[in-house]
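Ticket opened by: R.M.
Priority: normal
Category: complex prediction / small molecule

The reporter submitted a protein together with FE2/S2 (inorganic) cluster and asked that the result be attached to this ticket for the collaborator who will pick it up next week. Submitted input follows.
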Amino acid sequence: MSVKEENKNPAETAVKEKKQIEAKLIPIYIMGKRYEVPEGLTIMKAMEYAGYKFIRGCGCRGGTCGACGTVYRKPGDYKLQVALACQKTVEPDMYMAQIPFFPANRAQYKFADLTSAPEEVFKLYPELFRCVACNACTKACPQGIEVMDAIAALKQGNIAEAARLSFDCIQCGLCTSRCFGELAQYHMFQLARRIYGAKILPRAEHLAEMVRTINEGRYDQILDELKHVKEDELKKLYQEREAEPMPSGEDWKPKDTRYL
Ligand code: FES
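Result attached by the on-call engineer:
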């Protein structure tokens, strides 16, 4: 279970919050139980308002970590809907439950041993070819990713295209929860993006150079000095640091060039 009802004075907390939030109350059903919550809240905030405390299924609260997958159904609608609890606002009479973790097949591999050949993906995820192109995965994606198209690209051996199409994937697993071909799309895409980033794209020479200079200790002294600066001074230094203007030309350089 991802959440539990908080048992510390829930009535008292609810009364206090109800006073604070002056909004129309609407009925919703969380795991089958009816609650009245202010309209306009996200599912996550509505659950907290109702007295639930998140111990799993909540991370960034900003739609980027994928921890808060939720299923819901609206009255009179046969269709099961999916959403991120931190993004979707509640609607009257919604029936909802969270699925913060979806058990899905994740291939085991030693990344260093893999090549960029499409066969690597085929071997690790042979179920890829069970996709029947029903598009349920795309309809379930809260990120608006063309999931089925990315799967089609992988089937064609186009790892780069699969990586590009799935770039915004937050690994919530909602696609997989709706796939009757039993594909774990999000794990496949993660592998595609790893292969693309590490074994297909050209190496960034400036990055390699920077890593080399770090390893050679170029920044050891300044880091050591910063570790001994008092917190207030550190904050001041941070606030007054020189930032690269946006936009800046190719030849922009900071005034202090000691660490370039
Ligand atoms: S809590 Fe991170 S996506 Fe919702």
